[in-house]
Design brief:
heterodimer, A: 588 residues, mainly alpha, two-stranded antiparallel ribbon, 1% strand, B: 211 residues, Four Helix Bundle (Hemerythrin (Met), subunit A), 6 helices, flat
């Protein structure tokens, strides 16, 4: 029986087709437009967070020089920087941006399965961003409780933004979670139900696998943040004692009694740890595809890569308490979580070996996306190895709350996913816009960002081993920290400002290339996956013209012996390659 | 093909192989079913975490069980069981092409659910009338939190119910197979959701009774 996709039925197609500028670019239900809306919003709010980090660095390098950075502002900057980067930039960009753009194109679908809900997801996300940024303008300013928002201090007077700020933060998070759930239902259902003919689960590009599993993690983990946000709002506004213990506030007994701050920590990290992988897994998937494409070689161990993504996703739910070793937990409890944490190193190492083995004897093209992908391998291995230190209870105890931790997590979930984000933007830019970016500017952007990021975070590990505590507004007189630590802090700040400014090169390159870039070939990297095989570049609404693609092979047929070119797109039937029917025994 | 076989496919050995896709209606129906099951997964995670939070909070020394649960909860539970049964009846009627039965069951399910929600609000009033407000003790706080969260999910269900009941009351022509099929699917999805929320309510009620 001939297969007619749901969106191919005439009447539905007409319903969805955008008619005016507003339905095409503003209230758009097209996954590609929504993806770009998500990405631009996330990048905008990410730039705000970048500026905040620059101000923190200025204070750390030159204490008491900048009068507009008092301790209150410093804590507000820390909090907003962390929360924005983790949730409103990385989660939104990797899932809302790349998830939206890539899933339908890579799976051979016309669009997400519920386009209206998908549109709603973006607008609700935008609302959450507006609520978040509004907290800069309310009495008391944004919350300064640290991005983990630990009670009791988050909602106790004396903490910056303990009134309006924290409420707006919690409201914004709740709204974000609603937005994510609407998007996530779409991503998961589209992957499971709307793949084109021939696209079996194991023929999907690893990008889709990474985004898919990350979305499942998000759908199961974000409720933990939601629960903790709701309960904290209850504590603050209704006077319940879920998290708030009996506490003296300036000598007066508050009405709170018996609540457990540790309960909040459990809930927060039950979300917080999977969140690391919500960001990492899409990056893992995307970087696998990029390395394979730009090394002109099939990904080494495709099935291991898929299973590793799934296993990492599963394990990420049973390691959360490794963020709480210093909370006074039972040592056996700590032992359990240290064990599960270190077990994650196994599937993760499989992935790293497979990336390296894909490069091994590949035909490596040092394009801009490839440079960023290889950069990711360095930063990720680096951040992963310091994770082994911190995963062990006895090593974590002295290093906890020092700059070692700051160095570790920025390397592993800050710089590494950002490397992939840049790689992915450069890789798919020709498809999204139909134009090529400037390669030289791209390479300058890469080298300065990569080396600059190293010179920010590598010294932080050393500061941490010296015992320099994180979160301090200024060190004051601290005997065990030598003078030289301050010199290093100044160096780090210079690097941070350099890296921040270098991002202008990226922004200028992108902005200029959208309008003035050279016209791009529809498949400039000679890649196999379906998004490069669309009839139009950039793809039109509905993606595929009159007929959906049919998939005959996986996405990694690079340099197949006997093939006329060094790549075979997924929708190439075996007969098309070898009209006489000689396909080296591969066709059935 | 079983899931295990799907996940152990060696994609580099199956080049050129194609499988027939099912009928588009089957795909459309499975898409909605999948989305509902994924959403129920999110709901499960939410309530699981609420319950785990209560479980942890209970272990602390200041915990005291609720002194007297509102007496109306028993009646409310019966109403919700009734709603679930009515939904099941509507689904059976829809499957059998019995439009009158479908209308009866579907409308009854919504009304019983609305009655349940009114009953829950009365339950809250009973609690507060006896001074058992939310701040008094953590068990009360969890009572209001859990019943509130469950109620909001039913309100969401009622929104979908209201949209569908317009279509149910309008009915479908004898030979409009498409419409009948879509309506049947909507009723099926509502039934799944109602049963699941009943299950969650029974778990929550059990928890309220034992602590």
């Amino acid at each position: 029986m001939a297969y007619v996709a749901i969106a191919d039925r005439d009447h539905e197609q007409h319903l969805h087709d955008p008619q005016t500028f507003i339905t095409k670019y503003i209230w758009s239900q097209d996954h590609k437009v929504i993806a770009i809306q998500y990405s631009l919003t996330a990048i905008f709010v990410g730039l705000v967070a970048l500026v905040l980090s620059g101000m923190m660095r200025l204070q750390l390098a030159f204490p008491d020089v900048f009068s507009f950075i008092a301790p209150i502002e410093y804590y507000q900057f820390i909090t907003m920087h962390g929360m924005i980067m983790v949730i409103y930039l990385l989660t939104a960009l990797l899932l809302g941006g790349f998830g939206n753009y890539l899933i339908p194109l890579m799976c051979g679908s016309r669009d997400m399965v519920f386009p209206f809900m998908n549109m709603l997801s973006y607008w609700v996300y935008l609302l959450s961003v507006i609520i978040l940024l509004a907290s800069f303008f309310v009495p008391g300013g944004p919350t300064g409780a640290g991005w983990t928002l630990y009670p009791p201090q988050a909602i106790t007077d004396g903490t910056p933004g303990a009134g309006w700020g924290i409420m707006l933060m919690l409201a914004s998070l709740a709204v974000f979670i609603v937005a994510f759930t609407m998007g996530g239902l779409n991503y998961v259902t589209t992957v499971l139900q709307a793949r084109c003919r021939g696209m079996t689960l194991m023929r999907m590009p690893l990008s889709v696998w990474g985004i898919f599993v990350a979305t499942v993690l998000g759908l199961l983990a974000f409720p933990a943040l939601f629960v903790s946000a709701v309960m904290m709002v209850f504590d603050s506004l209704l006077g319940t004692s879920f998290f708030m213990p009996a506490i003296l506030d300036r000598g007066e007994q508050t009405a709170f009694d018996g609540g457990s701050p540790i309960l909040f920590q459990h809930l927060f990290w039950f979300f917080g740890h999977p969140e690391v992988y919500i960001v990492a897994l899409p990056a893992f998937g995307i970087v696998s595809d990029l390395i394979s494409t730009h090394a002109r070689k099939n990904i080494f161990g495709y099935r291991q890569m898929v299973w590793a993504i799934v296993v990492i996703g599963g394990l990420s739910f049973i390691v959360w308490a490794h963020h709480m070793y210093v909370s006074g937990m039972n040592p056996y409890f700590g032992f359990f979580f240290a064990t599960t944490t270190l077990i994650i190193a196994v599937p993760t190492a499989i992935k790293v070996y497979n990336w390296v083995l894909t490069l091994w004897r590949g035909d490596i093209h040092l394009t801009v996306p490839m440079l960023f992908s290889i950069g990711f391998l360095f930063t990720f291995i680096h951040g992963g190895l310091t994770g082994l230190f911190l995963g062990n209870v006895v090593v974590d105890l002295p290093l906890s709350d020092t700059y070692f931790v700051v160095g570790h997590f920025h390397m592993v979930m800050g710089i590494s996913p950002i490397m992939v984000v840049f790689a992915a933007i450069y890789h798919w830019f020709p498809k999204m816009t139909g134009r090529m970016f400037n390669q030289t500017l791209g390479k300058i952007h890469f080298w300065l960002t990569f080396l600059g990021a190293y010179s920010i975070y590598l010294p932080m590990h050393y500061l941490g081993i010296l015992g320099v505590p994180r979160r301090y507004y200024s060190m004051g007189t601290t005997d065990f920290v030598p003078e030289s630590a301050q010199a290093m802090n100044i160096g780090i700040t210079y690097s941070a400002i350099l890296v921040g400014v270098v991002q202008l090169v990226f922004l200028v390159n992108i902005a200029w290339s959208i309008f003035r870039g050279e016209k791009a070939d529809p498949n400039p990297w000679k890649a196999n996956s379906l998004e490069w095989q669309t009839p139009d570049t950039p793809p039109k609404h509905g993606n595929w013209g009159p007929d959906l693609p049919v998939v005959y092979r996986w996405a990694y047929d690079y340099n197949v012996p006997g093939a006329p070119e060094d790549f075979i797109p997924q929708n190439t039937p075996p007969d098309a390659l070898h009209p006489a029917g000689r396909d080296h025994g591969k066709a059935h | 093909m079983s899931l295990l076989r799907k996940l152990t496919e060696k994609p580099w050995t199956t080049t050129g192989q194609l499988e027939e896709l099912p009928d588009p209606y089957v795909i459309a129906a499975n898409t909605k079913r999948t989305a509902l099951f994924v959403f129920l997964g999110v709901v499960s995670s939410l309530f699981f975490l609420f319950v785990m939070a209560q479980h942890q909070r209970e272990a602390l020394p200041d915990w005291q069980p609720i002194t007297a649960l509102p007496s109306i909860l028993g009646l409310n539970t019966l109403l919700l069981i009734g709603a679930s049964l009515a939904m099941q009846y509507a689904k059976a009627a829809a499957d059998g092409g019995n439009l009158a039965g479908l209308k009866r069951g579907f409308v009854a399910a919504g009304l019983l659910t609305a009655a349940f929600l009114v009953g829950q609000v009365i339950g809250w009033q009973q609690m507060t009338a006896t001074g058992q407000v939310i701040q008094v003790n953590p068990a009360n706080a969890f009572f209001f939190l859990l019943t509130g969260a469950h109620g909001l999910h039913l309100v969401g269900g009622l929104y979908v119910w209201a949209r569908n009941s317009v279509r149910v009351l309008r009915g479908f022509g004898q030979d409009d197979a498409d419409q009948a099929r879509e309506l049947r699917l909507s009723v099926e999805l509502c039934t799944t959701y109602w049963h699941y929320l009943l299950l969650i309510w029974l778990v929550l009620l059990g928890l309220l009774l034992v602590t």
